[in-house]
Amino acid sequence: MFSRISFVDKLFFVDHLRTMTHASLSLVESLSILSKETRSKKFKAIIAEISHDVEEGNQLSAVLAKYPRVFPPIYVKMVESGEVSGKLDESLTQVVIQMKKTHALLSSIRGAMMYPAVVVTAMIGVGVLMTTVILPKLLEIFDEFDAELPLATRILIAVTKFMSNPVNLAIVLMALILGLVLFISGLKKNLQFRRLIHTVNLHLPIAGHVVKQINLARFSLTLSSLLKSTIPIIDAVEITAGTCTNLLYQEALRATAKDMKSGTPMSEILARYPKLFSPMVTEMVMVGERAGEVDRLLVELSEFYNEEVDKTMKNFTTIIEPVLIVLLGLVVGGVAVAVIMPMYSLVQNF
């Protein structure tokens, strides 16, 4: 019901709540003001409910936890730590910083994926248009050929005839949609299938490196923010696991949190997963543990990986563009050869 609240509305809420609590306004007063300022009707209703529950004596973190789709566990825990330490405004400041950095990371990824998505969509659209409208009329002339057509031309004619039939086109589209639905459903419901896909993602050329960078950026950024909010490190690692996008990172961090309960240092446990956590990560965590400054070194790691992701995403279009051009050239060249070859043979016979 409340899953479509925009990031801007949520950031506005947290940032202004931080400002008002820092100015010594009570939570109830602050929430009442925010409910009037918020434009989103859905979010306005949530804030009104939060204000009502807080006025009845409930902790803000406990109330926010009722809306996990709006306020993820990481933010709830950071608010809870601020309530316990009596420094709610400082915790809200950390939440704002975390939200802005996470949004910047996601924006960088989405921006880089926009170009290839548009190009691929255009290629598919042109391909469907060619095989359903243009090529059927062009290939009619080959019906009058007495000689045997080249293999490439016969394949093109067969594909064109199949795709120009509305029933066949509808079947192909339905099969693609069904395949996509089953794939997404398998990722959500089948743990083994999801693990397989996420393992493959980590080993893809170029993309696999990007996936690792994104997960390491999320890991270091989230964990550093949680530790700055004085959340116990074991709880912080457990929460951080849920923010990683790759299942292998999630499982590794949950196992890390479990093993840390027996007193094993985090750096030693992370070193057991060399394919997920680079030596730089484990070494910096180890140095932080020895110096008692894990959060500071994780901040440096998060800045490094955020910059790396940003650089990679900016260069992504440069990397993917030649691949798309080659792919488009092969398709266009194949069609051109299939159309020209029989015409060339016909001219030679004359």
Report on the structure:
With 350 residues, the protein is mostly helical. The protein is 81% helix and 0% strand. It is built from 15 helices and no strands. The longest helix is centred in the last third of the chain and has 56 residues, at 294-349. The protein is elongated, with a radius of gyration of 28 Å. It starts with 6 loop residues before the first helix and ends with a helix. The model has no long low-confidence stretch (mean pLDDT 84).
Give the topology.
Blueprint: H1 7-22, H2 27-37, H3 41-55, H4 60-64, H5 73-85, H6 88-138, H7 151-164, H8 166-189, H9 191-202, H10 207-228, H11 233-243, H12 247-260, H13 266-270, H14 279-291, H15 294-349
What is the compact description of this entry?
The protein is mostly helical and 350 residues long. Helices cover 81% and strands 0% of the residues.
Please report the number of helical segments.
15
Which ranges are low-confidence, i.e. pLDDT below 50, for 5 or more consecutive residues?
none
How much strand content do the residues show? under 5%
What is the rounded distance between the termini? 72 Å
Secondary-structure-derived class: mainly alpha
What profile does the largest beta sheet have?
none
Rg over CA atoms: 28 Å
Number of strands: 0
